[in-house]
Amino acid sequence: QVQLVESGGGLVQAGGSLRLSCAASGRTFSISNYAMGWFRQAPGKEREFVGGISRSSGSTYYADSVKGRFTVSRDNAKNTVYLQMNSLKPEDTCIYYCAANAGALITTARRYDYWGQGTQVTVSS
User: Fold this and answer.
1) First-to-last CA distance in the chain?
2) Average pLDDT, rounded, for the chain
3) What is the pLDDT of residue 113?
4) Is the dihedral of CA 20, 38, 97, 74 positive or negative?
5) Which pLDDT value is given to residue 58?
6) pLDDT tops 90 at residue 1
7) What's the Cα-to-Cα distance from 57 to each of 32, 62, 78, 107, rounded to whole Å?
8) What DSSP line would sit under 32-72, residue for residue?
9) Residue closest to 8 by CA, chosen among 88, 62, 64, 68
10) Are the C-beta atoms of 120 and 95 separated by less than 8 Å?
11) What is each CA distance from 105 to 46, 65, 111, in whole angstroms?
12) What radius of gyration, in Å, describes the C-alpha atoms of the chain?
């Protein structure tokens, strides 16, 4: 069974950095066969797309709110996807989730096939 496990969350001050990891496992699962996305969700709000990396081309795409500050990368050999977060702001405080989609890199959360349980990121001001 496919499992995605996020790690690296925590409490940081505004302007600081965090690096989130999403380790994937499964009998036949390889992130090289999936577009991988990062999403975040705050209490009472919809889950929103943060950034992701495609399967076919390896191209990346980011939400305007994080563009220039966050970077998504993948290490297929380690079956791991990363989200490097720099210049963090209090409004970045959310639970962050990684997700896998067998199709294209898309921004709609409900279209993704697999999800991790999330990791909390809290940015203090």
Assistant:
1) 40
2) 96
3) 95
4) negative
5) 86
6) no
7) 10, 15, 19, 17
8) GGSEEEEEEE-TTS--EEEEEE-SSS--EEE-TTTTTTEEE
9) 88
10) yes
11) 19, 18, 10
12) 13
Q: How confident is the model over 77-116, as pLDDT tens digits?
A: 999 999 999 999 999 999 999 999 998 999 999 999 999 9
Query: What pLDDT score was predicted for residue 111?
Result: 92
* DSSP category for residue 79: T
Cβ contact 70:53 at 8 Å? no
> For residue 24, what are its two tokens?
């994937």
Count other C-beta atoms under 10 Å from residue 85's C-beta.
26
Q: Which residue matches tokens 């499964």?
A: 26
